[in-house]
Amino acid sequence: MVHCDIWGGYRTPSLCHANYFLTLVDDYSRTLWVYLIKQKSDASTNLVYFCNMVERQFGKKIKHLRCDNGGEFTSSQMKDFYGSQGIALETSCRYTPQQNGVVERKHRHLLEVARAIRFEANLPIKFWGECILTATYIINCVPSKILKNKTPYEVLLGKPPSYDHMRTFGCLAYYWNNTKGDKFEPRGKRGESVPFGNNNLSNQSQAHKVNEDEEWVRGGDIPPVMDGNQTHVHEAAQNHTLGPQDEEAMQQADNDEAPEPTNDPTHDQLENNEETDETSEPVTHQRGTRVRTQPQHLKDYAVKLSPSVDHANPSHNQANHTVHPLAHYISYENFSTNHKAFMSAIDSHDEPKSFKQASQDKRWQEDMQNEIKALEQNDTWTLEELPPGKKAIDSKWIYKVKHKPNGEVERYKARLIAKGYTQLEGVDYHDTFAPVAKLVTMRALLVLAVKRSWYTHQLDVNNAFLHGDLEEEVYMKVPQGFARENESRVCRLRKSIYGLKQASRNRYHKFTSSLMNLGYKQSVADPSLFIYKRGKVHVAALIYVDDVIIVGNDLDQIQDTKKELHQQFTIKDLGSLKYFLGIEVVQIKDGMVLSQRKYTLDILRDMGLEDPKQPHLEAAIRVVRYLKSTLGQGILLPKEGGTQLITYCDSDWMGCPFTRRSRTGYVLMFGGAPVSWKSKKQSVVSRSSAEAEYRAMAATVSEALWFRWLLTELDATQDSPTIMFCDNEAARHIANNLVFHERTKHVEMDCHFVRERVESKEILPTYIKSQSQLADLLTKPLGGPHLHNLLSKLNISNLHVST
């Protein structure tokens, strides 16, 4: 049986102008044949040729041919051929390539090998055909597990292949210069070896020829030193001649074939003269470029390599081979002293990849025992017999060595993880969702804390996922290394552990139920917010996984809450709020500042480690410069002023050049500070700027109504309508006018709820000039002066700049 298929067409023709290749795989020996073809119709001719070749060369006849429903295989002419040869045609169903899986998988194998050898040889893309043919030859000579570690070549021909003739694809090679008429012309020209350019398995002597007109005299595994503009074997030969340095390279590559170099001084003089003539050609002057040096903070990541120097041609000094050759390595001497010490400390404490490795180290044994002991003390499981029909999930150990900044080991951490991906939905778990705190809620809470001079504290719940109670009946195998001999029982999980699908949800329910037992009520607007009201005492707790913010006007109640929680969980009291979810919180005389200075520093510190090219650097340099200039910028929450909610909404019109959709932008100001903002492309195209602004108003009203409900729960009810500033008079009139306007009859009905909220006196649309529209910076790029003016009105200030 033979499996066949066609790959292509590829956008770039090969050297022989082929855009496709026909793949044929012998089912018995897994031998691979590939034919480069210009168009699909050529497959029929090659298939007939292949059938005749197999019959003549191997004395076998093809009985079955498996392919897809392509017309090149199922035409009437080909069906007549199959009938005359007695070949049974098997075609796959439409859109089911898996039925022809042998050749489909072989295509993937071919492309992976061909791609690798092309990258290694650093050849242009038009050499893809030669790469495919070479990959075919290599695959046929490599052992396969399917063939019991035999090669397809050996299974087909009955003898193992020889590898003596094989050379690296694209390596340095020379061919005879047959030019007549000039006795001083070099006898050899340099190029690249592109071997195995045929499907002849029985004759391996052709590997040293690219075509019949060029005979290769020497070759080896030495990579060529190529000019950046060199794209073809013939072009390579035109610019490189056989010189003394090349003879030395050839001699090192193949001492048996290389002739002995002459020591005649006259001969050396002639060669030197030839070298002088070649280097005296006019030099093309190029535009000077600034020399770029590696940043100081990247010195431990820069590899200093000595490029190969060709004095005869300066263009050869460029990096050869692939961008990151396998032969290049990072020398230990390139690291700084501190980095060497850190690397040595890390290398001396490898992290085990398996339990077998960890069990050979007493330190990991001790930490695993401590982990199991902690889980048993927490009543995480009980040992029971596995009920019939139940399946126990497996677990694994994760090992991590935590280091101090100087490289010393801080601790060894072994953690038991359940393989939750093996759980069955509806059997081992049901719901997995667990809400987390919204940043808008956090900012609103801190604004009230500043305005009312409340205390702000922070807690951290250690091993938060281990405290949730399991409602489902889940069984887990005894952890590896802790099962007794002939133990048939398994662990019946009573509490959640890391890795379970429902671990996060159970953790949330456990913690929230504890707060509610202490008298806290869950917020409707934000399920992660819990509020305690008792007389004049007001305390609020905001939960984000294992981070908790507690804000209130009574310090005793806050401390009581901490004590009660500590009795049920392992709580780490972090004191006053300083850092939460990547946001630094700084208390100042005039209020509080929220900034992401540390996060910005991390971005600046990591710049350059992804090996960006020149266009990327030029595009990103302005972004990095902006981050650098706004390093200490943050939101000022002022003490002075009221707690009125004011909104700004804006939109551009058809701002996206591809979809022509508009962009919505809005800002919610509470207590003189921005607490919520958004910039988002609208879902549909607007026919006018008024329509785009009206859609932006609908999004703003939705956010404003939710925020008003949140403030009501925080005892900051908004008695007056929320002012919504808009710089489009037409949109404002549409919101105020109850008449179904002609220009808005196609607008979605959910947008018209804006009129209802205006009529109910909850929202008050107000006109504002575009120069004072604070949401303007969320819809379009602005100039520097105008941008800084809007930032100052938004109470965005730089804490680290002296005033």
TrEMBL record:
PROSITE patterns: INTEGRASE. Residues 1-160 form the Integrase catalytic domain. InterPro entries: DNA/RNA_pol_sf, Integrase_cat-core, Retrotran_Ty1/copia-like, RNaseH-like_sf, RNaseH_sf, RVT_2. GO terms for biological process: DNA integration. GO terms for molecular function: hydrolase activity; metal ion binding; nucleic acid binding. Keywords: Hydrolase, Metal-binding. It comes from the Eukaryota. This is Integrase catalytic domain-containing protein.
